[in-house]
């Protein structure tokens, strides 16, 4: 009876303890595992792992863990982390009987050998948190534990007058229950440019030199930055107070003035004409365009030229080519049975029709998003055939490509764990994938055709961690979209929302990068907290104006090209010679491969054919129709860095130089034969025949090839060559030399 009584008393005590704990939790809102003095595993212990780097990708947070112990990357799986820490090897990693002998503590403080080395001191706050938690029995949290909802730093912007100055950043976390907490001692810190500012483990920022950068604080899954400006010496700097053509100039010049960088002067008319024609029409200006523009004395002739180019067929072709490249349009097989010429052609025609009509870009994207129908006939369905070159449509790949293309968000990292450098979680990832799990491709009217359909019975994506279905959810949203009907309609409606900042900022940044060679956010398709814009107000201003223009690309391009900033010279001022981020002067930009080829054809007047394409096809209009050729479709385009359309990444297009390019220009069939043909029967022969002096010939060659007249020194030296050698040979050499020059190869 005594034994039975003891068991009854113990059972009653357990019930009473559980009841008391439950009441305590209801009254205080804290987990029932502990009173206020006992650390919470999720709120207190896991941040220790984070701060010490234990759950980083290079340590126990890697896919296979480290030395037999695995944690989820940056703590995306707290339940699994508790099990592996406490229950996987009982009494070893965590020894509640002798807390000081817990391997979790001993390795962290360097008391026993540890591959990761010593992580913190025994008398540190981190060590005390672990000891207190283990002494309390290493309890797991019970019930809902408030999660981190956001973090903020004490200063959004820091300005230093000289090197060596310091400032302290404090980090505050806000939780889902509304509570806040100073987490400076638990956060991780970093800098984008240590030559401008450094930040130590305690959040102390130190200026190291002039320039601008961002320092970061990271806690839980959130990263937040603070702008840091290191000012150069004020002595001798005078702001030139340049005129402003529009809001773009004001936003850029405000930034430059703050950084004590004087912008360059305007480029001359010759430079402007060539620059804007290459940017908007993908070709150099014709001789007739040059002469008309240079003879025009009107004050607004640059604005008139911009309008004329925006209204041209060349602009329609070029914009179609740029987006067609990102959409991966080619005739590579995706059906498993035949080519995809007709779907590719249908998609190209559809895109060009939209651009020619100056249709709002958000409406184009919305139509592609909700597209159904024949891929041979309904061009907008091309999004579901060109992005995924596979017999079966892959929702994960499609969601990642869609996000990167239209929102500038690379969310692939969140497939297996919360994004390590951005705010996106696995729930965000699988919620976005669920927009596309309902899309299928069925056999169409012929072997090349597929019908894109919506399957209402298709289940949503399953979470990789626990296998639960995740309903379709917009990025940044808390709740999923309405579960009735095709979820893509909700995605399309969000794209068309004028307040969709992700879309507005991404498209504006892409247009800016096309015209300047570098995005305000760079790379252009990598928007994240740890890759902030070089000029935040400028990007916001462009995004707002894009929305005001009804998301049409022509008006925004018109604004950018009419700005003084776009028309600045490539020659930097003394204060701007090191500027690579703030657009104080124009950057030399190497021509894309397709534009370069079209420019050679335009200047020489000698056409070039492309594989399986009609005669006269421009390089910017060429798409690969060669089933056995998996690169760009043309070996010269390959040589000069044309995108192979293997991904939606803007980085697939390269303008980097190579030795093979040099050799091709010297002895290949692209430039040399066309120069010789132009000299025998074409453009160069016509110039020579119609000119009355060597000076006229040389000037005409310069205008045709480089869209400018030669300098006096250039003209004098070349005229001398005609006096000591056969003039026809000299003219051909001059023509070829200019065609192979860096000045021709670059837009400046």
Automatic annotation (TrEMBL):
* Occurrences of domain DUF1549 (ranges): 248-440
Look up keyword Manganese and say if it applies: no
Which PANTHER family does the entry mention?
CYCLOINULO-OLIGOSACCHARIDE FRUCTANOTRANSFERASE-RELATED, F-BOX DOMAIN-CONTAINING PROTEIN
Q: Which UniProt key words apply to this protein?
A: Signal
Protein name as catalogued: Cell surface protein
InterPro entries recorded: DUF1549, DUF1553
Instruction: Output the Gene3D superfamilies linked to this UniProt entry.
Output: 2.60.40.1080
List the Pfam families hit by this protein, alphabetically.
PSCyt2, PSD1
Q: Where is the signal peptide?
A: 1-23
Q: Where is the DUF1553 domain?
A: 488-720
